[in-house]
Design brief:
single chain; 355 residues; alpha/beta; 9 strands; 12% strand; binds 5'-deoxyadenosine; binds iron/sulfur cluster
């Protein structure tokens, strides 16, 4: 065993027992591929110990691809004229949610680009209608004002996902023209203050992103004590300014996810669709390396294709019912089951009990 390898293996063992790591230790783990098996084994054991074997399935409803932002990596960016835009009507969104709930989903994740296409009352009406169907509502609508976040919460929204994407200020600035990094941090604080079960996350493998910068992201997640963290490899999209760049590495994304599991044992961690895009068994591999959630798409028909953040999106021609059956079969084949609970994270349950 080399000296470097000893440091990385030692760090994994420390993280397993103490749920803590220094910046230097995270970089050591990320740089050493010989510690991968130990890392993945301990991340899986941590997932099992704190969250059990059941996987939460949450239905991802991509209700509009309109976006006013111009993030350099994303296919929904405003300046991408190569995609047809859509915005489902509130009653169409509710109908799709109803079908997903009938398939067994206990959480509906309402996701869209960042836009003001919907009136506040319309979105609140959708949230309320879904809550009335006894499902949890997760929102992923980007940066909004405190008043809007509060109104959605009042209407019944339970959770909010807002990835920080990267904590590196220079990299963030380059990739997000005319967006404020500070505002994004503020939004995350506001969401927590309002009582949302709050999720964040990052992209792995962005151009010019260093391992040191990824280690900063991981430490930010730990320090912020989020309830959910989604890690996705960057996948270049030909209709964006980063179309010609190298994409993120699947194993590196899995390693980042596994370290997050060691540091935040009780949070929810999705096996992301972007991972499955890079590896045809990516979500199952993620579930065996720390993840405990899958978010199959419940959007139907051509809208599934039009919500195209990056190329190679999976299951484009499948129906929501088929997707649910397919992922359930894969989960059962690795000896796990689908959770019948509402999908709150163990971390959030603890937080509520303590308040
Ligand atoms: N590759 C991988 N993930 C992407 N996202 C957007 N564009 C890409 C891409 N090209 C992710 C962002 C965003 C989430 C909804 O999708 O992290 O937060
Ligand atoms: Fe819009 Fe989100 Fe894509 Fe940025 S990442 S362009 S905010 S959909």
């Amino acid at each position: 065993m080399s000296y470097i390898n000893k440091i990385a293996i030692g760090a994994v063992q420390k993280a397993f027992y103490e749920n803590a790591l220094t910046h230097r230790e995270i970089v050591a783990i990320l740089s050493d591929d010989k510690c991968d098996d130990t890392l993945f084994f301990h991340a899986d054991l941590t997932r099992k110990t704190h969250n059990g074997d059941e996987v939460h399935l949450k239905g991802l409803l991509e209700f509009s691809n309109l976006c006013a932002r111009n993030c350099y990596y994303c296919g929904l960016r405003r300046q991408n004229k190569a995609i047809k835009r859509y915005a489902l009507k509130p009653n169409e969104i509710i109908k799709l949610a109803q079908k997903a709930i009938a398939c067994g989903y206990k959480t509906i994740v309402l996701q869209s680009g960042e836009s003001s296409a919907y009136k506040l009352d319309e979105l609140c009406g959708v949230i309320k209608a879904i809550r009335d169907m006894q499902a949890r509502v997760t929102l992923s609508l980007g940066e909004k004002s405190e008043e809007e976040y509060a109104a959605y919460k009042q209407a019944g929204a339970n959770r909010y996902l807002l990835r920080i994407e990267t904590t590196d200020p220079a990299l963030y600035k380059k990739l997000h023209p005319s967006m404020s990094h500070q505002n994004r941090f503020n939004c995350l604080k506001t969401l927590r203050k309002l009582g949302y079960e709050t999720g964040s996350g990052s992209l792995v493998g962005l151009p010019n992103q260093t391992l040191a910068s990824i280690a900063d992201d991981i430490l930010f997640f730990k320090e912020s004590d989020f309830d959910m963290i989604g890690i996705g490899p960057f996948i270049p999209n030909e209709h964006t300014p980063l179309g010609g760049e190298r994409g993120g590495d699947f194993i590196l994304a899995l390693k980042v996810m596994a370290i997050v599991r060691l540091l935040l044992p009780k949070i929810n961690i999705p096996a992301t669709t972007a991972m499955e895009t890079l590896d045809k068994n990516g979500r199952i591999k993620a579930l065996q390396r720390g993840a405990n959630v899958v978010m199959p798409v419940v959007t139907e028909g051509e809208y599934r294709k039009l919500y195209r953040l990056y190329p190679g999106k999976i299951c484009l021609d499948d129906t929501p019912r088929h997707c649910r059956g397919c992922i359930t079969g894969k989960i059962m084949a690795i000896g796990r089951g689908v959770s019948a609970t509402n999908g709150d994270s163990e971390r959030f349950i603890d937080r509520l009990a303590a308040s």
